[in-house]
Amino acid sequence: MTDLDQLTQSLARNLKHWRTERGYTLDALAARAGVSRGMIIQIEQARTNPSVGTTVKIADALGVSITTLLDYEQGPQVRIVPPDEAVRLWSTGAGSYTTLLVGAEAPGPFEMWDWRLMPGDRSASDPHPPGTVELIHVRSGTLTLVVDGEEYTVAAGVSATFEAKVAHGYRNDGTDPVEMTMSVSIPLGR
User: Fold this and answer.
1) What tens digit of pLDDT does each residue of 87-115 get?
2) Is 113 in a helix, a strand, or coil?
3) How many other CB atoms sit within 10 Å of the CB of residue 161?
4) Rounded Cα–Cα distance for residues 187 and 30 (Å)
5) SS3 of 175, please?
6) Cβ atoms within 10 A of the Cβ of 187, count?
């Protein structure tokens, strides 16, 4: 079984688990997430691997992190995630990518991501639930952070934080790859 097959199976199992746990019908979850009922069915039957945006919308609608949606079985208080078990969720042919390094649920979903944006690449994000905060630390290159249409330059060694309840995105307008670490904190009771 390939990594993509494992991801698809895990997402199918966990989506059904969390939808049932929350008491949502297919129609109710589809309405909350802003995706079609057919998409929810396809994901639960492991017949599709949804986009990152769709996965984020579903996780937000369920009130869980992407980490939890991909693997809800919790072990001991300490969870070690080796590099080969981190989940790559987005990539481009140019070499840009995002990797979910680790996530937690206390006091609300909290995630840490590894990002690489190659020159000329960009990634846009829909608004997250109110109270969601993103923290970014650029390790190399210069990031153009766009929050609610306003652009901010974040150079190597610089950190930034913002409330992610508005449309936002990340862009590499430079000639060197941008490498950054991002943490996302999502409030309980979304």
Assistant:
1) 788 889 999 988 877 666 656 778 889 99
2) strand
3) 12
4) 21
5) coil
6) 15
